């Protein structure tokens, strides 16, 4: 397995998120904060290298392999460290030299000193750290502003997909913030941008007073 070079954007980074990510991708050796949505975290992980290379998930015992596979992550190249406890910085530091992407849920607040030390490790290795939650000095911060599940009628039907409004904030080119409406995923399990026809349909629906909303809870069915 090759180690990514420092500083360059990951090839094909971001997948369906390319249009909203500054520069069309995530820079190698950086930290991205993904707040409040496991589905968005997995979609981004697959886009920045976890689909073709090795990935590790640290401190996320609830992460479902079926969900990860559905978002494009190869379960045979996924390392799981469910309960690192207070030693998660050492675990991430060790993994950074061996995998392309690390998913992390810290066990507590992240001290600025720990973040700076890990930042240096990531820059040397080229590994991308995707954090489920806040991170001091993260280059990018992603979240879901609103979402709604499609396919569930009035007490009947099946959940066919989820439309979400994704917000990207950060430093530099991302300081002003960007938004995009995505299927996360669509009825075929694919993460993609809405087509023009779907955008028009969504605008007409919103114009009739139907605001986007979470039917079953934000990200509630993405980690099973």
Task: Name its key features.
5 helices; 224 residues; 24% helix; Rossmann fold; 9-stranded mixed β-sheet; alpha/beta
| CATH superfamily heading of the largest domain | P-loop containing nucleotide triphosphate hydrolases
In spatial order, strands of the major sheet run 3-2-4-5-1-6-7-8-9
> What average pLDDT do the residues reach?
81
Number of helices: 5
- State the shape: globular
Radius of gyration, CA atoms, in whole angstroms: 17 Å
Q: List the uncertain runs.
A: 1-7, 9-14, 211-224
CATH class of the largest domain: Alpha Beta
Helix content: 10-25%
Question: And the CATH topology of the largest domain?
Answer: Rossmann fold
SSE class = alpha/beta
Structure write-up:
- The chain is α/β, with parallel strands linked by helices.
- It has 5 helices and 9 strands; from the N terminus they run E-H-E-H-E-H-E-H-E-E-E-E-E-H.
- Strands 3-2-4-5-1-6-7-8-9 form a 9-stranded mixed beta sheet, with helices on both faces.
- Strand 8 (178-183) and strand 9 form a beta hairpin.
- The longest helix is centred in the middle third of the chain and has 14 residues, at 112-125.
- The chain is globular, with a radius of gyration of 17 Å.
């Amino acid at each position: 397995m090759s180690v990514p070079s420092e500083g360059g954007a990951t090839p094909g980074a971001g997948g369906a998120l390319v249009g909203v990510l500054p520069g069309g991708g995530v820079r190698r050796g950086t930290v991205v904060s993904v707040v409040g949505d496991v589905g968005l975290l997995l979609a981004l992980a697959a886009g920045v290298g976890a689909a073709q290379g090795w990935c590790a998930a640290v401190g996320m015992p609830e992460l479902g392999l079926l969900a990860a596979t559905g978002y494009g992550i190869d379960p045979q190249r996924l390392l799981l460290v469910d309960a690192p406890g207070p030693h998660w910085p050492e675990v991430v530091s060790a993994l950074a030299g061996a995998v392309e992407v690390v998913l992390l849920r810290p066990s507590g607040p992240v001290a600025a000193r720990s973040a700076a030390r890990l930042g240096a490790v990531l820059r040397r290795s080229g590994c991308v750290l995707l954090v489920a939650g806040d991170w001091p000095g993260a280059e990018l911060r992603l979240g879901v502003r609103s979402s709604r599940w499609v396919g569930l009628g009035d007490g009947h039907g099946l959940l066919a997909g989820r439309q979400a409004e994704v917000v990207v904030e950060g430093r530099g080119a991302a300081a002003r913030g960007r938004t995009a409406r995505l299927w996360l995923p669509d009825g075929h399990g694919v993460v993609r941008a809405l087509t023009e026809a779907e955008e028009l349909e969504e605008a007409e629906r919103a114009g009739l007073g139907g605001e986007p909303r979470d039917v079953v809870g934000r990200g509630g069915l993405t980690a099973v």
